[in-house]
Design brief:
Strand order of the largest sheet: 1-4-7-10-13
Oligomer: single chain
Distance between the termini: 85 Å
Shape: elongated
Number of strands: 13
Helix content: 40-55%
Strand content: 5-15%
Largest sheet: 5 strands, parallel
Radius of gyration: 35 Å
Length: 371
């Protein structure tokens, strides 16, 4: 059942990511009108430039089909322009190449800004020239389109998921007891682990600076500074990774059910992958709606907050357990109060061995008592 849940969760997230990226690829580019106007104005004033109206410019790749006849000029903004039909005006590509296909005809000029021109057998009545940059002003890079924003966010989240999954497999192979010990600390001492992790994050930078200064006092220490930097970076990254994997393991157990003390590779792998998929789903959801103003910001804030809490708590558990080398005893193993009558009869109770009873004085008789 757990394996089926892992497969279903992975398929759902992968499907959501694929649909999101496919939708993003169909979204139109959204360049600033002011930026386009500024570039076209500079292009018209350039001695090697050409005049082009903003209405003739289209974002991304643009193709004029063989049966198409354009009465004016055509232009492509940050994408290639392919002419296979007839253009009565100019053909311009800003930040892209111009391709004149066989049998095509351009009755005006052909210009490429920041690209090249390839004529595959067409006819150009005017001039053909390409320029690398404008002498009057400079075309700025357009803002990311909706497709680029979604694609970049989903790719980043998926990349981190794959990296953590590989690290998790390695941890289960070579450091499974350590991972389980850190996860137990997160489960048993959640609040304490979070506080320790927060304090550790605040102390990493000052501790690193003090260590570098201490090494820089002597010549030998100064030589060791580069090795210290590499070792410190590896130690911090390893602590964060181990702590986050422990938090993901607990999240997977919460979704798939407890392991009931089973510490085998398969029993720990399934909840670990489910937990990582759960975190991936948060970031994919935030990426899918990153373009929707407040909703996108809220989803990304929630994803970042949940991830930071998991990282901080896991880091604190790593510190408390010395990277899993000192397991934290669960509450069931803590000292319990004596419960039998015999255990109260000796300072060091031993079950089944009763200490001698302490003699007690006889009760006093009253003043008027007698024989």
């Amino acid at each position: 059942m757990r394996a089926i849940r892992v497969i279903i969760a992975g398929c759902v997230v992968a499907g959501a990511a694929t649909a999101t990226m496919a939708w993003g690829q169909q979204a139109p580019a959204a360049s600033s009108a002011a930026e386009v106007t500024a570039v076209l104005d500079s292009l018209a004033k350039d001695q090697n430039g050409i005049a082009l109206d903003a209405a003739d410019l289209a974002p991304g790749p643009r193709t004029i089909d063989a049966k198409q006849h354009v009465t004016g000029s055509v232009g492509a903004w940050h994408g290639p322009l392919t002419v296979l039909g007839t253009v009565d005006g100019n053909a311009v590509a800003i930040g892209g190449d111009v391709i004149i296909g066989k049998g095509a005809r351009v009755r005006g000029d052909v210009l490429s800004l920041g690209g090249s021109i390839t004529n595959q057998g067409g006819t150009v009545d005017g001039e053909t020239r390409s320029i690398s940059a404008l002498t009057v002003g400079k075309p700025g890079r357009p803002p990311l389109t909706r497709a680029e924003v979604v694609r970049r966010s989903v790719s980043l989240a998926t990349g981190w998921f794959l990296v953590l999954a590989l690290i998790g497999l390695g941890a289960l192979i070579v450091a499974r007891p350590n991972l389980e010990a850190v996860a137990d600390a997160v489960r048993v001492q959640t609040v304490r682990a979070f506080v320790v992790g927060l304090l550790t994050q605040l102390g990493i930078a000052p501790a690193f600076v003090l260590a570098v200064v201490a090494c820089a006092i002597t010549i030998i220490g100064l030589i060791a500074v580069p090795f210290l930097v590499v070792a410190a970076a590896a130690a911090v990254a390893g602590a964060f990774a181990l702590g986050f994997l422990a938090s993901a393991l607990l999240a997977g157990e919460a979704l798939a059910g407890p392991r009931n003390g089973d510490a085998s590779f398969a029993a720990m792998l399934q909840p670990l992958l489910i937990g990582l998929v759960a975190f991936l789903a948060l970031w994919v959801a935030g990426s899918a709606f990153s373009w929707v103003g407040g909703v996108g910001y809220a989803l990304r804030f929630i994803s970042a907050l949940v991830t930071w809490i998991a990282l901080t708590t896991g880091l604190g558990a790593v510190v408390l357990t010395r990277a899993g080398a000192r397991p934290v005893a669960p509450p069931a193993q803590l000292a319990r109060a004596p419960s039998t009558e015999l255990e109260w009869q000796t300072p060091t109770p031993v079950t089944g061995v009763a200490a001698a009873r302490r003699p007690t004085p006889a009760p006093r008789q009253g003043a008027g008592g007698g024989r």
